[in-house]
Amino acid sequence: MTMRMIVTGAAGGIGRAVATLAAQRHAGCSLALVDRDKGVLDDVAEQVSALGARVVAVAADLATVDGPTDAVRAAEQAFGGIDALVSNAGIGGLAALKDIAAEDWDRVFAVNARATLLLAQAAYGSLTAAGGSIVATTSVSARFPTPPMGAYSPAKAALLMLVKQLALEWGPAGIRVNCVAPGPTDTPLTFTAFGDKENSKAVANRAFRESQIPLRKIGRPEDIAQAVLFLAGPDASHVTGTEITVDGGLSLALMPATGTGKTPRHSAT
Question: Maximum distance among all alpha carbons in the chain?
Fold first, then answer.
């Protein structure tokens, strides 16, 4: 049986990379590509289809209560079931906690955390029948506060715990649930921050960020996609409740960044 997979946030960045790599690796796989941006999504679907995959494009707003369920039902109707769910859609939002509006907080949580739960609930029957898997895209921000995105880190932290809770509760049904935590990665979401080569501030920000990463480079969507597909597929058949961090070693650099390990300097008095 060829893999039948849902990929959300598929119009660009990590989601697009996951869909492309899946089509390249799994001949004749079935992919339900989900995103709000129908125009771009249709273009991506056409490109992925050209690689030999069976593709259905599903336009859905995952911030709504019905959007996730509608997306899953569309995939089930097209493919007769689901083997893997990649819950990748996410949003940022630049607002400090003292300023953030309640509706903005709720939307960040709705997309970054609640959508995974609603997708998973809708797909439970299909995934149980298939002995399937769920992979969510978290972030290193789930473990490290990331100002000025006051809602982003809390939402990703909630998603990380949701993954662990789902893995524990749904393991007896044969469903594996894992996540991948990217560090700084070149995606449409981060373009303004450090991807725009025509913007001097973005260029300087990129240089600084790369200087703090042990591998000295920003991640590519393809780097994250490799980990996602490993967790989604049979090579990870005994892996559940796990987070794979793909950040070039950034998480290792936290203590050195505070000066730990350096010989202190004492000024003469």
Answer: 77
Question: Which residues pair with residue 135 across a beta bridge?
Answer: 86, 178
Question: What does R_g of the chain's alpha carbons equal in angstroms?
Answer: 19
Name the class of domain 4-183+219-250: alpha beta
124 is annotated as an active-site residue: no
Q: How does pLDDT run across 71-94, given as a tens digit for each residue? A: 999 999 999 999 999 999 999 988
Are residues 65 and 89 in contact, defined by beta-carbon separation less than 8 angstroms? no
Which candidate in 79, 109, 124, 152 is catalytic?
A: 152
State pTM to two decimals. 0.93
Q: Which amino acid makes up residue 86?
A: V
- Pair 183, 245: CB distance under 8 Å: yes
Residue identified by tokens 């079931």 is 81
Burial class (CB in 10 A: 0-12, 13-18, 19+), 28: exposed
d(CA 50, CA 143): 39
The encoded tokens of residue 241 equal: 């409740």
Of 88, 85, 82, give the one whose Cα is nearest residue 16.
88
Termini Cα distance of the chain: 76
Starting at the edge strand found earlier in the chain, the sheet holding 30-35 runs: 54-59, 30-35, 4-8, 84-87, 133-137, 176-182, 243-246
Tens-digit pLDDT profile for residues 188-228: 888 888 898 999 999 999 999 999 999 999 999 999 999 99
Separation between Cα atoms, residue 142 and residue 7, nearest integer Å: 21
The DSSP call for residue 264 is: P
Listed residue (189, 77, 215, 99) closest to 151, CA to CA: 99
Domain boundaries, the chain: 4-183+219-250, 186-218
Q: How far apart are CA 232 and CA 179, in angstroms?
A: 10
Contact predicate 127/72, CB 8 Å: no
